[in-house]
Design brief:
globular, mainly beta, five-stranded mixed β-sheet, 4 helices
């Protein structure tokens, strides 16, 4: 399997996440600056247009008549120019290598979704496909930058494990998703039976994404949430609403240090089973 196909499957598969998305933010965050991202049929606008680095609530307001917004959020790596990205147009792997990924959101038409992101200065982009892109600039942090919100649950991704509580409260909880590892990571969450072993849960997680890069409709796994690939050092806060039960989180991204051999993070043991009560 080529590097390009691996990237297409495991990154841009999230462009079809119609059933997997965040809820509206469950807690009030009045001290955090808010940017409304208006998604329209004729383009994308930002209010305010002057965006500063730091902890920021991004409100995605999809005003489109039909099309959902299904996009990855990223910023240019240091030294990358607009010409570099244009030259990589149509090449998923080349595009992703130029960017630092925050993750992504899915916003059906006529709805709003919110996340809190720790934005860094620089040129940013929403990737709805390898060629459909919206750019925006993030300036230096202001003197009164907001503090991080108080999360109910922290999901720390490392090489190769998840740090998260063994028990999580049911209902809407604000999750802090952070990558403190050295590789990019994702979080695919499925609901499992109480007595499911780690090996059985891992086998279920491998059925979620098809070889063509779509989420499998016939997968026996009950997919409940997915956060797309996030680069090291990035942080987001999202609301996840879980029912009581047993869940598994896994990362099926490839270990890029071992390519062209295909070894996934899941094969390295990057899976976590936890209970929601």
């Amino acid at each position: 399997m080529s590097r390009l196909r691996i990237t297409m499957i495991l990154l841009f598969a999230f462009m079809s996440l119609g059933i997997v998305s965040t809820e509206s933010l469950a807690q009030e965050t009045p001290d955090i600056p808010e940017v409304v991202v208006s998604l329209k049929d004729d383009g994308v606008t930002f209010t305010p247009s002057d965006i500063s680095a730091g902890i920021t609530t991004l409100v995605f307001d999809n005003e489109r008549t039909k099309a959902p917004f299904q996009g990855l959020i990223a910023r240019f790596r240091e030294g990358v120019t607009m010409d570099d990205l244009k030259a990589a147009a149509g090449d998923q792997l080349a595009t992703v290598q130029l960017l630092r990924l925050y993750g992504g959101v899915v916003v059906p038409p006529g709805t709003q979704k919110s996340i809190i992101a720790d934005l860094k200065p620089g040129t940013h982009v929403f990737l709805e496909s390898p060629t459909l892109r919206t750019f925006f600039e993030v300036g230096p942090a202001s003197m009164d930058s907001a503090a991080q919100p108080e999360a109910d649950v922290t999901l720390a991704m490392v090489d190769f494990a998840f740090g998260t509580p063994s028990t999580v409260a049911a209902g809407e909880q604000l999750w802090h998703i952070q990558n403190v590892g050295q590789q990019f990571h994702e979080a695919i969450m499925i609901k499992i039976d109480e007595n499911t072993t780690s090996e059985e849960a891992a086998a279920l997680l491998t059925t979620v994404v098809t070889p063509t890069g779509q989420f499998a409709e016939d997968s026996p796994a009950q997919l409940v949430f997915a956060w797309p690939p996030m680069d090291p050092g990035e942080n987001v806060w999202v609301t996840i609403n879980l029912e009581p039960g047993t869940y598994a989180i896994g990362c099926v991204l490839p270990d890029l240090t071992l390519l062209p051999e295909m070894h996934t993070h899941l094969e390295h043991g990057m899976i976590r089973i936890f209970t929601v009560e």
